[in-house]
Each structure stands twice: as C-alpha cells, then as structure tokens.
Amino acid sequence: MTDLRQFFASAEDVIVVPGRLLLDDGPQRGMAVLLRGGRFGQIGDPAALRSTHPQARVIELPDHLMMPGFIDTHTHMTQSLGKSLVFGEPSEIFRRIWVPLEGSLDEHMVYLSSKLAALECLRGGFTTAVDAGTRSAGHIGKLVDAAREVGLRLVVAQICNDQGGTAQMPEHDEIIRRAEAHLEACQDDPLIHGSLAISIPEVASDAMLRQISAMAAEAGVTFQTHVNEHLVAVERSLVANGRRPLEHLAHIGALGPQTLIAHSTLVTPSELNLLRDTGTAVAYNPVASVWKGNAIAPAMQMRALGIRFGLGTDGTRADGFRLMDAAETLQRAGYGLACGDSSCGGGWLWVDAATRMAADASGLARVTGRITEGLAADFLLVDLNRPEFTPSHDLTWELVRYGNRDQIDAVFTNGRLRLLHGWPVDWDAHALMSEIRELAAPALAAAPIQRIHPTADSLIAARPA
C-alpha cells in the first residue's frame, strides 16, 4: 500500500482515486474525491478532477473501497474497563454493574476508559460515536479530552437526572447550569458535539424530562434516553404512571426530532406510531439485544413506517461490519424467517443504517455520514484484495456479511489519518493498554459491583465430564 502517513501528512489538496467509492447510490467505479480542508471538496471523474485541480496530490488505490466511516448511535465510553463483566448476566446490568463502576471512577480512570473505547471505535471503523454520558462524578471533560486526542468524532451527553442513577445528584438549578455549560463548551469544536441526556425516564421528574428535551430542541442538539429496553422497566412505568415509558414521554411532551431513544425493543404498534408522528429517532442495538436484552427492535417495521433509526453498539463490541451483520441477522431471525422475507433490507439498508441514517438519527446529517461535497472527510479505506471479496458479485451485501474490521487499512476523521492497519499513527496505544492493565483491577475491586454469575473461567473445572 502507498505510504499513507507520508501522503496525508501535509495540508495540501489531495485527490483520492479508489477502486470503488461508496456513494448514496452504492459502490461506484471510476470516481475520485478531492479532499480539501478536512472536507470532501469535490467528487467526480478522476481525469476531470486532475484537470480542475492540477496542484492537488493524487493517490491511486485501485484495490480499495473508500466509504463513509461508521456511526455508532449509542455507546458508553466510560464502561470499557469492565466490558466483559456483563457476559451471561441477566438484564438491567446498569443497576448492578455500570452505575457502581462508573460512579467509582476518578478523573484519570475516566480518561483511560474513554481513550480505550475511542481507540476501539476507530479500530472498528466507527469515525463517530454517540455517548450517552458518564455517570462518574463530573468528569465529562476527561471523556471529551480522550476522544479529541484519539480523533474520534463524538456526540457526548451531559446527564441531567434529578432522581437518581448517577454518582452525584445536584439541585435543579445546578443541573441546568451544567447542561448549559456543557453545550457551550462544545460549540464550534471540530470533533465534539454536545448533547443532553436522562439515563432512563424513571430517574428524572416529569418536569426535568420536559425541560431537558426542550433545551436540546432549542439548542439544536440531541436529547438521549434509554426507553422500553427491559420488561421490568416497562412494568415499573405502568405501576408508577399508568403508561409505558415511551407513552409517558409522549404524554409529557419529551419526544420530538431532537430525541434519540436507545433500544425501543419492547414497542407496541401504537408506540411505533408515536415515534413516527413525533419524528423521534431510535438507536437500534442488535448486539445488545443478543447479549443482555429482552427483545429485538422491529427495525424493518420502523423503516417501513418512516421512523428514523441508526445502528448502535451499546458499548458491546466495536466492529461496524459485525454490527451490520448482527442488525440484518436479528431482523431475519426475529421477523424474516416467520414471514418468508429472505432479504430483510437487501443489504443496502444496513450499510445506510450504519452511515447516513445513523448520522441523521444522531443529529449530524449536515456534518458526516456520507461521501458528498461539503461534509467532513470521515472515511475508511477498506482492502478489497481479500479472499472474502473475491470474486465480488454484490459488494454491498458482501460488506454486510463478509466485512470485518481487520479489512480496514486506514481510518480518517476531518480528512486526517488517525489509524493505519488498526493502530494510531501519532500516539502510543500499547502504552495506554499497559497502563490500563496495571490500574483496571484495583479500580474494579473498589467499585461496589454485584454480579449474579461467576466468570466462565472459574467454572471450567466444574464443567460436566
């Protein structure tokens, strides 16, 4: 491969001529892209671009696909230090594992956890992630620092709970002050985008839910919350409010185009109509459904109804290709097999849901998610000279079912090379991992985590003969 480090080191205009270019109408041959000032400057015929921009450097990559970076519409970056602790655990692990863990992290551990998560995102082809906010004691600045250093585009939420679920519980006026300060701090940042969140509806008063959603709408940012994920939470809402969580948010006026609902796996037909009619977006988290959920979000039905959604990991595993595969697989297993739908989106739906649809759901449609003129140059170079893509008959389907993060040769955000062959080009990831190996165990031991099951390793000796 051409030495991309050297080629993209300068701030000069660059014309990239890939073997295939993933545009809105699918993977195209014979197209080139001008990169200028961290954005996609122009797209067209390679010869025409060379003629129009004779001063630009030209890089030809005939064996590569140039595609938009994946967008993770829902993750938790300050949970990366304990990610495998939840394997095999029953639902609502946030109560027994995540809240205790995140609440016990000091500033440095928040920074380390976030930097590790950001690295994993980029390695998996995610150039953007939407973080639901840290429950640690006011250390969101360290989360932002980590993402910025790694080069990950981040939508990051300030949690605004006023009835529990975080390490600190400020008074109402202080919650609002912190929310306003967070949004102001993120203004005009090239990589960091502010957001507001309530962890789950039951940890905030109706007045706070309504106010934070309205604040987000007025500021033009996303309002995030976890809704209709677990059966027990739906039942608690029915007891407390006489309405299911999503119904209750609609009742108090907290839904709308600014709202991004994580999960929505347990939704009734009337709730689907609420999502559609209010323009509310959904993070479809298929791997989370398999690992720790109660149900599968009806993504195919959401698409048919015109409900906005994008794919999210929920902090499970950071591999954009495997996420698309899981998204299609769960729809086929959960719905397609029963009704004879053998395509479940035709492949293209899941590529869209991981890129441009995810950008729209995340409030970033005018920033990223597509290779089109004027948007940020957030993209991947995928090596097509692999057995998985040989021979290639339908590249879009092949990306969904054969793609893997080890096929990603390079990751860019804002036109800047961030990772080459899975590793950062301008900082030492191995030093980060070494420090985390040293500090993670004591940090986890200090957290009041409650696991229901022992680890798999500890059960090996007791397994049946």
Automatic annotation (TrEMBL):
Amidohydrolase-related domain sequence ranges: 66-417
KW Hydrolase (keyword) present: yes
Hydrolase listed as a keyword: yes
Keywords: Hydrolase, Plasmid
PANTHER family in alphabetical order: AMIDOHYDROLASE-RELATED DOMAIN-CONTAINING PROTEIN (PTHR43794:SF11), AMINOHYDROLASE SSNA-RELATED (PTHR43794)
Similarity comment text for this entry: Belongs to the metallo-dependent hydrolases superfamily. ATZ/TRZ family.
Protein name, entry field: Amidohydrolase family protein
Lineage: Bacteria, Pseudomonadati, Pseudomonadota, Alphaproteobacteria, Rhodobacterales
